[in-house]
Amino acid sequence: MAKGWVKAIAADPELRSAIRIVGLVDVNPDAARALAAEFDVQGAVIGSDLDAVLGETKPDILFDIVVPAARRDVVATALRHGCHVLSEKPMAASLEAGHELIRLAEEAGRLHAVVQNRRFITGVRRIRRLVESGALGEVTALHCDFFIGAHFGGFREEMEHVLLLDMAIHTFDAARFIAGKTPLAAYCHEENPRGSWYAHGAAATAIFELSDGVTFTYRGSWCAEGANTSWESAWRIIGTRGTLTWDGADDLQANAVVGSEGFLRELAPIEIPGPADPRQTHGHASVIADFVAAIRSGTKPETAGDDNINSLAMVFAAIESARTRQRVTI
């Protein structure tokens, strides 16, 4: 994942001019040295002791790209050194740890935000703009399918609740952003299907109650071979006037009812606008740029921890519901 972050910075002229990498920390320093060599990172301090490297380099920002179990200590250490912190998702390994990080950031007077890069893509931004226009009427439901046979190897294949904790948060966060609603409750069934190469929780089906009577459903699997969806899921968004479908790639279609008679009413296509700001459609680069702009302007980044915890709360509500087989309030 660190490679993806450094690549995003290197490919964006504005980020290249705004950011200078002064340190690389890894439990395996050889991995950090390999990253520095691959991207020609000059003069960076390399080590395995985060506290020591922060003390030596005194950076403005720490990019936290560690596994979820290590996140709390890494973020807390960076905040103690006066850094702003941009973390990989999920924000924390528990809801309690997420609230603690919000508190620590407030006490330090620094920003802590989360890379929800999949809300910073063209399709999501276009859908959000269409929903805001009212062309679909009032949104009543969002339905998402995510089915990919993903063979990662490594830590994911040993994680508990791997789909919900490591991947579903992208779809949950995008749904919350698109609908502009607050999550209220969750029902979820989680399983590890026959043939799964994961240790736990490779598939899940969830129903969320959102504010204003909106329903969000999610069906997902990371061990579904044979007909992969997009990584962004396949979407159906229903409003009181019409429906939008999105394959998670380039195919967005929307129709609204224009007839007033007949068993099935006459439909007409809705023109789906482009994103309001194309600079917000470049995934990791857009999240990083938003974070840097917030530091410079003294504003709050879009994915600040005190907002992103609402997406994390959806994840842990789904996990708790799957464990107890009960409806869980958020």
From TrEMBL:
Residue ranges of domain Gfo/Idh/MocA-like oxidoreductase N-terminal in the record: 17-112
A GO MF term: oxidoreductase activity
Keywords: Oxidoreductase
Residues annotated as domain GFO/IDH/MocA-like oxidoreductase: 124-244
Membrane-spanning segments: none
SUPFAM superfamilies: Glyceraldehyde-3-phosphate dehydrogenase-like, C-terminal domain, NAD(P)-binding Rossmann-fold domains
Keyword Oxidoreductase included in the entry's annotation: yes
Pfam families: GFO_IDH_MocA, GFO_IDH_MocA_C3
Protein name: Oxidoreductase
Originating organism: Sinorhizobium saheli
